[in-house]
Amino acid sequence: MNFQQLRSVREAVRCGFNLTEVAHMLFTSQPGVSRQIRELEEELGVEIFVRAGKRLTGLTPPGQTLLPILERLLLEAENLKRAGEDFHASSHGRLSVAATHSQARYALPQVVRDFRARFPNVSMHLHQGSPRQVAEMLLSGEADIGVATEALATYDGLVTLPCYRWTHSIVVQPGHPLLETDAPVTLEQLAEYPIITYEQGYTGRAHIDEAFAREGLRPDVVLTAMDADVIKTYVELGMGVGIVASIAVDPERDRQLRILEARHLFEVNLTRLGLRRGGWLRGYAYHFIESFVPTLTREAVDLALQQAAQSAAAAAHTDS
User: Fold this and answer.
1) Has this prediction a pTM greater than 0.85?
2) Strands 241-245 and 168-172
3) How far is CA 257 from the centre of its chain?
4) Judging by beta carbons within 10 Å of its beta carbon (0-12, 13-18, 19+), is residue 283 exposed, middle or buried?
5) What mean pLDDT, rounded, does the chain reach?
6) Could you tell me which of 145, 141, 90 has the C-alpha nearest to residue 118?
7) For the residues 157-171, what does the mean pLDDT come to?
8) C-alpha angle with apex 167: 164 to 173, nearest 5 degrees?
9) Which CATH number fits domain 3-82: 3.40.190.10, 3.30.420.140, 1.10.132.30, 1.10.10.10?
């Protein structure tokens, strides 16, 4: 048994059983991938994959049982390598952070700047995506740290920690009728105008929909986007009223718009930091996390990871 065999199985599952794609991912040939899988199956004495001719079409029941064990072995091998690197070169390496647009654009810039100043020999990689994509990058090992508001807490393979709470704001053009009174805007008033806001699954959109639904209102959402900059652009064009994260608006920067408070209308949102369960964090990763959320010290993060590992072990014992 060797790690190349384990990687071949893992990538076959990740690539939808397409061995050509697996060969590309592992920088080898398709026959080489097939051979690695066959040799592992022969050594274990079971077939891991369901086959239709020479094609892989799915996992057998033994394969479904073996896959989590295989992934843990590869994860621990990666952890071993990272632990060695941490002792050998504690201030050199690579840090990959995945975040949604709002987090990458508005919450992380100063943290990234300060981190780069403190660890100039660490290569920093910032990936943007939907909350689901952020979670998948964490699970695959492509990202070390993930930051998003929604979805992260729903993945069993992740450990999530609270970062900060935030609310929404309403953005309108100057002279908009909603500006004519000093009274707080109501959902009924808001529903009278075309709405421009986030796509489903982004930046607290669920709380926006839930608030209107509770009041029996059906807002006219004419345009959705993944980030606040796009939303504000179309508000400036007069296409509707924007609902965006409060961290994404600044009276100085957004001089062509007017900002109205919406914290009384929509539920408060919680941004979370996600880590892969069982993963190894380099020392400088802890510094990045604490710089972003001062309460998330190394001790606090390690405690959360340990508790998650204990919960997973207890669940596995119960299932068995």
Assistant:
1) no
2) antiparallel
3) 30
4) middle
5) 89
6) 90
7) 94
8) 140
9) 1.10.10.10
